[in-house]
Amino acid sequence: MSSRPTPAELADYEAQADAWFRENTPKDPGFMLPLTFMEVSTDQQFEFLCAWQRKVYEAGYLGASWPVEYGGGGLHPDFQRIATKVMKKYDGPIMLNAIGIGWAGPLIMDIGSEEEKKKYIRGMLTAEDIWCQGFSEPENGSDLGNAQLKAVRDGDEYVLNGSKIWTSLGDRAKYMILLARTSNEGASKYAGLSFFLSPMHAPGIETRRIRKLTGEYGFVQCFFTDARIPAECLMGNEGDGWQIAMKTLEYERGAKVNLAGGYFLKELDAMGVVELARESQRGGKPLLDDPVMKDRMVDFMMDIQALNLNNQRRRMGPLVQDRPMGLALMNKLARTEMIRELTEFSLSFQGTRGGYYVDDPCAVDNGYWHRSYLNSFSATIGGGTSEIQRNIIAEHVLGLPKGR
Amino acid sequence: MAFSEGNLADHLGGLSYSEEQIELMDVATNFCRDKSPIDKVRKLIEDDHGYDPAVWQEIVDLGWLGIAIPEAQGGVGLSMAEVAPIAEQMGRRLLATPFATCTIAAQALLAAGDAAQCGQWLPRIVAGEVATLALTEPHGDWNLAHVEATAKASGDGYVLSGTKQFVVYAQHAALVIASVTLDGQVRLALIERSAIPDAALRREIIIDETKRSYELTLDGIHIPASALLDAGRSGTALTQIELASALLQAAEMCGGTQSAIDYTIEYLKTRKQFGKLIGEYQALKHPITNAYVGYEKARSHMLSAAHNFGQQGVGEIAVRMAKASADKAYSFAADRAVQFHGGFGFTHDCDAGLYRRSAIWHASQYGDAAWHRSKLADLLF
Lengths: 404, 381
Known about the structure:
By secondary structure, chain A is of the alpha+beta class. Chain A contains eleven helices and ten strands.
């Protein structure tokens, strides 16, 4: 990593990035873009987002702080932080390859071998190699440690049998980070798990698209039937799987810095909710004349502000002395639940028009609010449900005993 | 400009801290823990005075009464931002003293007092003489401009009439700052304790047993002409009082919330039922986690209110958010603290009750969550 940049260097860089994103951030492509990497439904959306990620990478604003020898920009992380900030400012489309650059990439950079870094990093940054995650199974969702997909060593290969589900981009991915069972022995259910960087294009691996609550596609169920993958796909040693998976979830839950940069979810336009309320009518008067609605809106503004302040405070050591990890570990729970509640609230503004859905010509904002609300569950469920998040906070921050 | 989640903070004020703030936080954390163990809190509940004069003297000696008072007036010359972490630790340990009311009285003097009034009283407050406020009335309105008590010209001064409630620590105060109307205008009057007959004070029975509060009958009390604060700055002073109070309450409430949660967690980690620690049950684990999340949000708001205090526009929003958020967090945490202690929670011996009562007290003074949200609605939309 290079040395800490001066404020002048950072200011120069920001000016360059600002000019680039102002010039290059795509305008409305004329079709609906996904709000998150989890609901990429059509080839058109997929190709558009691949091209955008590649363009950002080639301009140097993605992976800027990863080492040059693996495809990164070799800059200090402060530069990438600035690039991401500017990207957000111009509100461009999401970075598509989230599992790659957000999860697998940081993991490989942290604990991967030299070969793994050389093999995988560049392709995930260019979006040539799309990644997906094989953790959840039909019978093992929140109880991830009980994963049953079997990986049996046979010479230079592992033979995979079982199924993974809720796999975002699973039908378009070249690689999967895969949690599989190599043993049923050992002290606990966790001890038999192993972690693979598995190819997706192999005989015996099939995917079936699953339609979402919103009506869109974007995730699949994967079936592994005597699928053979090279033994060198194993990351670490057999039995390290749980530990590595937990490390990966730390990136997903935002407790670790996102080294590659970019964002994978469109932030909700909170002030847009206020605008929607202002434009809405109730009983012949502006909705925000209604003291009850106004009061709820204030409550949401307080909540949004609290989470922004939390994000500032979590990096201020003296202001988090008593429970240093608390703010980081609650972020996912607090933010996703707030967005779910706020988008649900927004539906109630629309009166009878709340009955329309995406693509009806009369739908308010083409159904953006309905789609946002229904989509909000992907974040309150995916990556560990809110209920699991509460257990994590209770056990790891408050020190409460684990339930059996 | 449409603002999104990301830059909302730019419009509502962000977060920062001063080194002095952190130093005071550290000192106050240890001081309040050492000087106010829970058995002492309970002993003082039974004591008429309500606080330990020796501890009060130590607080004075530490210079805490002068933190937000300019050096020229004998103070330290910092700001309310540095007072907040002290109030937080006092609330955490239920250390009840006239600290908050003295600080707010000083802010009122700074907002509307002339040089002579400030010169007479601020050094005395810094030196530990108690000053308090007599603002609220039997009508119970949180609007501080709703004043029915009056002042009428009489001789070379004024004679007061009306009733004031929740005049905290009035019995031991050297100075009471009362709101009255004079010729239809709200004014703040400085009343020396010596002008108040003992019979004019009635000790009130209040929900928070750790504090002391009095009803003050103003009828017949005379004040000299020089005892009124500046007429032109009455409104500013009332706003300053309301916001300073709300900030210090938010801080005390955050401290109390933290303790209510810690106290309950201890119980969940030790009490067994059906062969399990009750903290293993999600029916208890999840609500206490929600209480904790609420506490951290409230604390972020409070620290932002401290940092932004006095900033035009942003400051008032931050303070009202802090009080509203602290009320919600404290009420919920303390309410669940009672419930989760089961039968013991229903007893006077359980500390959960101290926190629950403290939260109700704070909600009742200078506006609860709903009151501050209604003010925010006007400020935001």
